[in-house]
Amino acid sequence: METQRLSMGNLAVMMAIASVIWTTAYAGKNMIRSMLGWTLRLIIFGLLFTLMGHFNYMYVKANTCCEKVSKNEVTDPIIGYRLQKLHLPCVKAVILETPRGKFCISPRAPWVREKLLQFKKAQKDKLIPSAQSNM
């Protein structure tokens, strides 16, 4: 996804450079026409750049949400999680991140709350040094 963003950025820079070269090449013929052409190119460039960013954002959002959830218990160790709100087509979910990947879990699954409390406790224990390590 980052590569796609960089490619769009490179394309935008190339369009800007080509526009400057095109404008300066024809500037001697008719200055007013050249300035109108430059303004029009900047407006088109701005619109294209805005649309590319808008469609890229829509693409990212569509591919990074859970559209279905499971109630099956995840037994792998959890290395992270996030809560997803209902925003169609995305459903309300707890996204658990494990070494094997991400899992979309129903927040109503009976085991989820306990699993998240265990994860939070383990994270808290990592941040607080034990009394023995200070001696």
Name some characteristics of this structure.
135 residues; mainly alpha; 3-stranded antiparallel beta sheet
What is the total tally of β strands? 3
Share of helical residues = 40-55%
Q: What string gives the helices and strands in order?
A: HHEEEH
**Whole-number average pLDDT?**
75
User: How far is the first residue's CA from the last residue's CA?
Assistant: 48 Å
Proportion of residues in extended strands: 5-15%
- The gyration radius over C-alpha positions equals 26 Å
Q: Helical segment tally?
A: 3
Outline the biggest β-sheet: 3 strands, antiparallel
Oligomer: single chain
Explain this structure.
This protein is mainly alpha-helical and 135 residues long. It folds into 2 domains: 2-63; 80-128, no CATH class. The chain has helices at residues 2-25, 31-63, 112-127, and strands at 80-84, 93-98, 101-105. Strands 1-2-3 form a 3-stranded antiparallel sheet, covered by helices on one side. The longest helix is centred in the middle third of the chain and has 33 residues, at 31-63. It is elongated. Residues 1-6 and 55-63 have low confidence and may be disordered.
What's this entry about, in short?
The chain is mainly alpha-helical and 135 residues long.
Helix and strand topology:
Layout: H1 2-25, H2 31-63, E1 80-84, E2 93-98, E3 101-105, H3 112-127
Antiparallel strand pairs: 1-2, 2-3
